[in-house]
Specification:
about 220 residues, alpha/beta, TIM Barrel, 9 helices, globular
Length: about 220
Amino acid sequence: MKKPDICASIINSDLKAIKAVEPLVELFEVRIDLIGDNWQNIARQLERPWIACNRIKEEGGGWQDSEARRKEELLKAVQLGASIVDIELATPNLEKVVPLVKKQAKCLLSFHNLKQTPSLENLKKIVKRQLAAGADICKVVTYAQNAEDNLIILKLIPEFPEVNIIAFTMGPLGLPSRILSPLVGGYITYAAIEKGAQSAPGQITVTELYDLYKMVKQ
């Protein structure tokens, strides 16, 4: 069995920590909204493919500036060599941004519900909207209020067998879905580079996830 693909979320400029996990991951997520002005310098030094993400506050991000500048930074990432660009489905004028991204990178359209996990039917509608908007990769992340929410989000993945889909729940109760998502067909799962450097609630570290998957492979 192939080891699931791990994406390490970069939230600061600690290049030593980033380089330490590089051999364990398939790709990085460069969180422009959290790293700040130094993000381009960090991105240039990565030896793995990377996802550019500039998350809005409403979906759990830290971007403080204008919407126009947020998009500008994402388009800079395309020029800098990002393999994938993560844009929220709720982004204004999305139909203008998606074609610009897709000229040189894959477009990941994301949806985050920071409070709960909607029904499977509603989650399926979200994925259909993402695909209609031109997504190469669909990402649906919700908040786990109970253990059952993990199952709901995982059931979404086999509903779209031909689609590159990322789906899991956040929060303390969402850990099972983070681990299991790629094992049931999810595109990737995310991990923190080190303890205390999570980009979202419930994230475990690259090393913890890598060690877990090593056991599963055996």
